[in-house]
Task: structure prediction
Amino acid sequence: MVKKAKVIAFSGIDGCGKSTQINLVKNKLEKQGDVFIAKLGYFPLNDMGQNKLMDAFLKCRSGLEIIKYYTLLQHNEYKKYDYILCDRHLMCYLAYAYAYGIKQIDLIRKLLCFVKDPDLTLYFDVDVNEALKRIYERENHIDKSENYTTLYKAKEGYEKLFNKSDNVFRINANNGAQDIYEDVHKVLKKEGIIKKY
Result:
């Protein structure tokens, strides 16, 4: 029988520390098996706002991108990997769709019914000002979507989705990276992802 990878989604607004935590978890899980990292981009959603015709085109393009992403992701679940770490997943896409003014997130979720829920989702809950501070500290820091208004609306979108998703764990992401990782480690251990030796 073909084994199925455990899929762990890392969710939260930009600047919440997803990439840092993915790398820390990857280093830990590589001691247990093969790890694949999948990253979902928001392009072309973050190019919206030019005009209605262009926005309609970008929404269609975004739909095609997400179908391609999840088709590849689900194909990889049955390959050699033991773990797939998703830098963003459907919850993220829907939260940012909401932030960009696409209100029909329940309808989009139904249209994307072929997308399987991850085995586990870690939602990194961070204050918007803290997230912006981290973004500005990066060397190549700024995307036009990384502003207070968009991040605030995306966080609002996450809150609307939080209770509608299965097996989601809220992580306080206002602390330092090591403190956040300790909370992540506890969840992964409790859920049997990190083996107890």
The mean pLDDT is 84. Helices lie at 18-29, 52-76, 90-99, 105-111, 128-137, 148-162, 177-190. The first strand starts at residue 6 and ends at 11. The chain has one domain: 6-188.
